[in-house]
Amino acid sequence: MDASAISSPQAYMRLQARWRPVELAFWLATLLPFWLTPDYLVLASQIAITALFALSLDLILGYAGIVSLGHAAFFGLGAYTAGLIAKYGWGEPVTGLIAATLVAGIVGYAASLIVSRFRHLALIMITLGMGLLLAEAANSASWLTGGADGLQGVKIWPVFNVFSFDLYGYVAYSYALIVLFLVFLLARRIINSPFGLSLRGIRENAVRVPALGAPSRAHLRKIYTIAAAIAGIAGALLAQTTETVSLEALGFQRSADVLVILILGGAGRLYGGLIGAIIFMVARDQFSGNTPQFWYFWIGALLVAVVMFLPNGILGGFAKLASRWSKVF
Amino acid sequence: MIALATRGLNKRFGSLVVAKDIAFELPVGARHALIGPNGAGKTTLINLMTGMLPPDTGEILLGGENIATLAPEARVRRGLVRTFQINSLFPNLNALEAVTLAICERESVARVWWQRVTAHGGVIDEAHGILSSLMLGNDCYRPTRELPYGRQRLLEIALALATRPKVLLLDEPAAGVPRGESAELFAVVSSLPSDISVLFIEHDMDFVFRFASRIIVMVGGAILLEGAPREIAADPRVREVYLGKSSHAASRHDGARHG
What we know:
The structure holds 2 protein chains of 2 kinds.
Chain A: H1 9-16, H2 21-29, H3 33-36, H4 41-64, H5 72-87, H6 93-115, H7 120-140, H8 142-145, H9 170-191, H10 194-204, H11 216-242, H12 252-265, H13 272-290, H14 295-309, H15 313-328
Chain B: E1 2-13, E2 16-27, E3 31-35, H1 42-50, E4 57-62, E5 65-66, H2 72-77, E6 80-82, H3 95-106, H4 121-133, H5 149-162, E7 167-171, H6 182-190, E8 197-201, H7 205-211, E9 214-219, E10 222-227, H8 229-234, H9 236-243, H10 252-258
Parallel strand pairs in B: 3-8, 3-9, 6-7, 7-8
Antiparallel strand pairs in B: 1-2, 1-4, 4-5, 9-10
Helix pairs in contact in B: 3-4, 3-5
């Protein structure tokens, strides 16, 4: 950026964190399904939940450089917590969400004590291992989780005692979208904070940050805990809106999918996971209707193409295009 | 007053001794140079003092306190700060963000996640002030990866200064800087505040003789000798270390630079 166009360093930093018109347009567009595709509100609610899950991964992968192949563990913890609470007599959704957040956050903090000490391949293997451990534990504890049959008998009360979950997904999508937006505001604040700046430093150069006197491991533990708690919220939303929890909530496939979603959309961009979730979920809905067996063929092809030609994801490609555009004019 | 000292510092990797009974003192406000051929253990000594490598035995005294067992970041917070021989920067952050990060860490506001960076306007202004004083004011909005190499070397020093060091360890500040860009670097190093004690490694002998009040010569993981620049320049052992007994006198300059 040209220094002469900037009035002061503080003004520059404010400019970096400002709400851009395209962001407002994006959030307004999330309301369109209510009018344009009312038949697809159930899908829309699933997209919002997946976007929230991808956002939580972006906080650790995109902003702190923690690669995880076991992030579904926290999604699943949130899902089972919310599901079990409802099954055993307390179906109030908001307190269910809070309980799921706490459980996923506490387990996330415990995991962060290990995770913050490793990087690269070791980190991938540790997160993968912890994810598999939890998935197998849930499978074995079928007296609690229902095992392969899934958790049955989950009854969710109306939101705020007023809005009952309906078959068409009006309430489900509204509920998921509001939660997504609130958590997004939180994530946005985190990445624009001094803490967020230090995280970006750790992502860029993990060796240099301690040489500046920073407690990097404490920073990593903190963001990992926050990300786990948010993944727990996403899981709880799925449990509450579908009134069931299956083992795949914390399976390896979900960890891999969310990673694919974030890489497709663009990691470290806040909206990358959201855009990725929309593309992935809509494409899956369209493709798997016709030829379900080819679904992962197309995702594989798309993934290879994006990583080869758009290393910063689809959103990174757009950003590059936009900056070229602004240079031309 | 001694700012930094080591006593009996030893480190070995298997049979390779990289630090052998290292003892030296850096007085407050000093400008000492650490020279020696490649592999003499100069950077290793910095790594030992800053905690990137644990010593086998020995003491590292910062303002009289033994810091040998402290974590690297704890040593920085007590005022012992280094720069890196090969730029160790944040490629996708700009200089303003990077120095702001360093100041936030110093002021312990880096744990704050509920406020925007811009809520700490003083930190941003201070970062810009440091960058301006290092002649980086106009480049501070460009991503670090786009800066010329000489400017990146200046940013290394800016980051270290942002931590408010008491002792600054400069690991080859002029390494890789083209002749045309070195004037700024010389100016910055010569204008470092006099209350900061500086120990620097450098192969550029112009640089060494210009800034050092004393020179420490290391060979094979041990301190060979220490003295005023004039004594060091005249010492036959130093010539021998750099040139070997049979080397031709004409190659002296080259040998000293790239040693």
